[in-house]
Amino acid sequence: MRFSQRVQSLPPYLFAGIERQIAERRAAGVDVISLGIGDPDLPTPSHIVEALAEAAADPATHQYPSNQGEPAFREAVAGFYFTRFGVELDPASEIVPLLGAKEGIAHVGLALLDQCDVALAADPGYPVYVTGPMLADGTAVSLPLVRELGFQPDLEAVEPSVLAKARMMFVSYPNNPTGAVIEDDFFARLVAFAAENDLVVVHDNAYADITYDGYVAPSFLETPGARDVGVEMFSLSKSYNMTGWRSGAMVGNRDLVDAYWRLKTNMDSGMFGAVQRASVAALSGPQHCVREMCEVYQRRRDLLVEVLRTVGMHVEPPKGTIYLWAPVPDGHTSASFTAQVLDQADVVITPGAAYGAGGEGYVRLSLTVPDERLREAVQRIEERVRI
Ligand SMILES: Cc1ncc(COP(=O)(O)O)c(C=O)c1O
Question: Is 5-44+288-384 a domain of CATH 3.20.20.190?
């Protein structure tokens, strides 16, 4: 069988490789601890599970859902955005449900890019910022996140020749993989930059509520002018431990929301009605479960930061996300250090270079394993890894 150039040029999906490594070692009887993948270990809060069970028992949810989403789903997203961010969204025209933010990130390029058009992709960044544009026959060009700028991009440094072809850009804060958050006027500068250069901003807000030390993350849409130039990809995955449920929404610019909806009607048949009703329960119900979960992650974060110090790795505790972004010890690449930790400690961590060239020199450690396993991982690193 001959496959399209498009598919042949896709890099292997990062986590497929990690999952294979884990499976091989486990098959050989090795007790592997994975700090590789950012998939919450804690269960979905019970009131959301109960809402799903009740909705799944209602035959009205068993038929094709509407691609536009149930009005109650869109109203719940709008209600959440207003309460949480002070952002008013029109449920009829500024919200479209997504099967997780990943769907929107992977496919929005199909609505914005023609052949050879450029998408600027935060680097290091979620790998789909690169592969999504490739699926649309566009080109992703690295938008380096600069450590000295708090892992923000230097917008002035984008080459004019690249800007001439650029139609869109992907950014995300709280940021995977660096854990960086926005505490200055970056979003205002981004809006001005996008307006000046006729670019669409796609802000990936997958970690909106996974924050620590009292920090509260803004929505991109809080910034004046943001919805004229872009959209936000919102996700229920991390805030409510719902990664398996596939629930999120694209919100913001109504023309892009409409174009994306038209595209979507040709690609999928929407989100299971029962998941939509459970999402309403998540967004409109009690939110203390989110803070409690963040307390768990914060405790794990502090534990990991501390032990990494004892092995000579200095990491700033991040104010957001479920990751630590750690510089590798001298003499290592991100891949060589990852391999050493796996070999010597049977602990999986992710090489920074897997998130783009800008991730070289770092590794990412995820906080999504139970406390005892995290302690065990930490102990193994402390005892067995010789740097
Ligand atoms: C930065 C970022 N964006 C998007 C996603 C995907 O989110 P969802 O589960 O809503 O598709 C992830 C998942 O890890 C992520 O890290």
Answer: no
